[in-house]
Amino acid sequence: MSKHVVVTGATGNVGTSVIRALGADPEVGSVHGLARRIPEVSEPRTTWVQSDLGAAGDPDKHPGSVDELAKLFEGADAVIHLAWLFQPTHRPEVTWRTNVLGSIRVFQAAARARVPALIHASSVGAYSPGPKDVAVDETWPTHGWPDAAYCREKAYLERVLDVHEHRHPEQRVVRMRPAFLFKQESASEQRRLFAGPLLPHRLVRPKALPVVPDIPGLRVQALHTDDAARAYRLAVLRDVRGAFNLAADPPVDARVLAEMFGAKVVRTPSAVARTALRAGWGARLLPASPHLFDAVLGLPLMDCTRAGEELGWVAERTSVQVLEEFLHGLRHGSGGSTPPLAEKVPGGRAGEAATGMGTRP
Q1: Measured on CA atoms in the order 164, 165, 169, 170, is the torsion positive or negative?
Q2: How far is Cα 118 from Cα 330, in angstroms, rounded to an integer?
Q3: Which of 38, 202, 300, 349 maximizes the CB count within 10 A of its CB?
Q4: Is the pTM of this model over 0.90?
Q5: If we measure between CA atoms, which residue out of 233, 178, 224, 225 comes closest to residue 31?
């Protein structure tokens, strides 16, 4: 029997890849893609549905309420929960309303609709600070970094799912914990979310940067979004539960970046970078919070053995290939065919600045 899958956050960086992966699988018969803004593009076996998990108003009647979500989830074999709001970083109560309260409603609705499988997009950001010289498995503590809203929210939802699993043992709950996810189509969106309109294209060209700062702790993992999407598809089809780390090799640090850019490595104190980021964010010149920078410096490297053994998953692209594709997208202003991934927002970069960097959803 073919599967019916519901995907929240279906038009974003991860959602678009998951929708395509599901649509290409003969074991998947139909997909409902939930999104705040319905795209004009069509995808195989996919029906778009409007739903706003952060909507205000009557909690029992708005499109993101438990009752309404439960109706949308009826008959589904799996719900893949990807919806997430990264901005506004200056208003954490807004992101909390969507990311935490909205996610809790998704979990409750999936249980109410008796959906057999709930697959949640957690993150490496849920992990407590850890080592940079050895990789940790899925048993590493998930208390996040409390000063960063993104990590705080991801970690809180890990605790919510602990309770959810205890209350609903009949439901198969999967937690994906991917590394930083990139693809060419997401370049413009991620530039808007994290770098803002002031980043010039020429700075991401080879030879354009004479030096790359080597900041203590700045050693992370990356993954192509399409590779992550394959893991989500496999989690729908296989009888697995629990958490799965997802990342590609090698870990990315200053030396890897310097080789990509043809630049020199210069040791830089973290305090210098933090001060610059804090000033830019405080002046509304950068959308990314300096608190997230501190969190990144402490993130552990992840061991992905379990995903290989139980999902049969392995990253098909190296982290260097992932970043090369993403940087190509940045240089050329690449985007996708859904509203979040659009190459430009109304008014272009001037419109981004006018609406407030780090202050709007």
Answers
A1: positive
A2: 34
A3: 300
A4: yes
A5: 233
